[in-house]
Design a protein that fits this description.
Length: 403
Amino acid sequence: MKLLFIGEAVTLAHVARPWTLACFMAERGYDVHFASEDRFNFLFDNDTPVTRHHLPCRSHESFLEAVENCRPLFESETLIRYVEQETELLKRVKPDVVIGDFRHSLSVSCRVLSVPYVGLNNAYWSPYVVNSVLPVPEHKTIPFSKVGFLNRLMPAITPIVFKLMLSNLNKMRRHYSFSPYKTFREALTDSDLTLYYEPQGFIDMTPLPEHHRFIGSVSWAPKLPLPDFFSQLNPDKPLVYVSLGSSGVHEIEEEIVHDLKACGVNIVVNSRSSYPDVYHASLIPGDLAAEKADLVICNGGSPMAYLALSQGTPVLGIPANNDQLLVMKYVEAKQLGQVVRWREVKEGLLKSVVPDMLNNTRMKNTVKIMAGKLNPELAPYHFEQEMIRLMAQCSIDHHQNAV
């Protein structure tokens, strides 16, 4: 079976997650190809038997700017160009299956060439999620004092936001003579097989169609030992690990460190920046660090949040966008962590929230119960089973059509 994975390199997560699955499948003996922008090259291990292809993606900076300013994530011209580039790649590679993460143009390019398309997504973006209302977005023009009031308006605002986000995707569809999508969530999950990066039951869902399935959490961590300074931490103080990721609000990192110092804890920061009397490194294995930590502070996105929880460590999420806010909505509802908006960090809220979380025995116990369900080692095996099932079904369909 020849598999082509495609990751849209606007953030690390959309490359790291499919790359993790690609490496697993390659090690299992499948013919694996991987296409993305050459942006997060520290991910790639040349010893892994995966054939890599260059595929242009939107720049990381312009994507984050669009998110910050609540604009459509992709221009219609970009999506149309993506389809052209993808069809050229598919004709060259000739895969049996294409697997995409955040590459929504694949819903057209794969159908044009009649190649089965597997879409990787988070369940909170599904059309079948029980609560489809967005949180109040993190936008600098929205006064923080108005968040509570605006939260009551979000049931009315959410459809307007989704209509705006859907417009360019439908322009792409019409350009290739495909019928337009009715909803944004439909557009995000339109694939022959939709696989969710959550364990079943973690997100409240209505009954799913057969081609929407859960594989569980997929997280990437560098295959490195912990830095030597972990052995120098004060064993009598709790450890707080800070990792804001590629799409976090890095401008508040210094304030986070300042407030953590006031809490009297060990601090380790995954960052290129250095701070006096604080241990840091630019590349730290998040799984090992989270296992050692008593609390993880991250952007609230699913890769790091789920990874921390899988190690039995509560999460304090400081989201920068709606995806991260949605993750933390479920994490907080299940009492696995807490959301702090980045403007609350500027007001010094961490000085009270961090000690409260470190002393929250109930939360710690709840996280330890959930940890096994979010074990990232399970998802690749579930993914392989879904690929086997998909190809078996495709073989049956082909035989029936031939008859």
